[in-house]
């Protein structure tokens, strides 16, 4: 495995944390225990990203579609989410990480909404890294919500129709003030992005692993970084142009 000095790190990493239920089944555990195990995995991943200089980490914890799951599982996930926030606030302060949440908060309880706001307010001034947790989130919702807010600003004469372009839209989308996602990691063995960060993933490198989320380690994350470092990111240019840019810069 290459060392950190040898690789080019992504600025913004997104992770679809998949495989909790399959982990429980594989290990003959009650279904909810997979989610409990998965909750503990995030801490070392966050710390490692902070240590090596990743600017932003965004994780998919609960999708818009996950509301369709059995009510007992949803209730457990909401309980674990509340636990996670209480645990993460002092950790974010310790490591000077800004914590934020993206998704449709109207679906959440008033208590959780207030907890989100408190966590964001207490960590908003930190600049070492941003940890974003996607809850009740879907890429379709994100794009539609952004379009709705742009339309409202047009009605209020804050924005003109002629001003609307990709750059302006990107200012309204979730995470619009962060670097674009460079690397998307999905654990659990499925090869899809599941309505996650559709706008923000436009030029992201995709990395899929069969490792289940509760088994995902810092070493597995390093493997993903190694693969990312080896990929040539052209953004529409040719390989020759990319090499020339490197020489000139």
TrEMBL record:
Q: State the GO CC annotations.
A: cytosol
Task: List its EC numbers.
Answer: 2.5.1.31
Cofactor(s) demanded: Mg(2+)
- Please list the residues that bind Mg(2+): 18, 205
How are cofactors bound according to the entry's free-text note? Answer: Binds 2 magnesium ions per subunit.
Catalysed transformations (reactions)? 8 isopentenyl diphosphate + (2E,6E)-farnesyl diphosphate = di-trans,octa-cis-undecaprenyl diphosphate + 8 diphosphate
Q: State whether keyword Cell membrane applies.
A: no
Q: Where is the active site?
A: 18, 66 (proton acceptor)
Q: Which GO terms describe its molecular function?
A: ditrans,polycis-undecaprenyl-diphosphate synthase [(2E,6E)-farnesyl-diphosphate specific] activity; magnesium ion binding
Alphabetical UniProt keywords: Cell shape, Cell wall biogenesis/degradation, Magnesium, Metal-binding, Peptidoglycan synthesis, Transferase
Q: Which residues form a coiled coil?
A: none
**Classification via NCBIfam families:** uppS
* Subunit structure and binding partners: Homodimer.
What family is it from? Belongs to the UPP synthase family.
Q: What does this protein do?
A: Catalyzes the sequential condensation of isopentenyl diphosphate (IPP) with (2E,6E)-farnesyl diphosphate (E,E-FPP) to yield (2Z,6Z,10Z,14Z,18Z,22Z,26Z,30Z,34E,38E)-undecaprenyl diphosphate (di-trans,octa-cis-UPP). UPP is the precursor of glycosyl carrier lipid in the biosynthesis of bacterial cell wall polysaccharide components such as peptidoglycan and lipopolysaccharide.
| Name of this protein | Ditrans,polycis-undecaprenyl-diphosphate synthase ((2E,6E)-farnesyl-diphosphate specific)
Could you tell me which species this protein originates from? Acinetobacter nectaris CIP 110549
Tell me the name of the encoding gene.
uppS
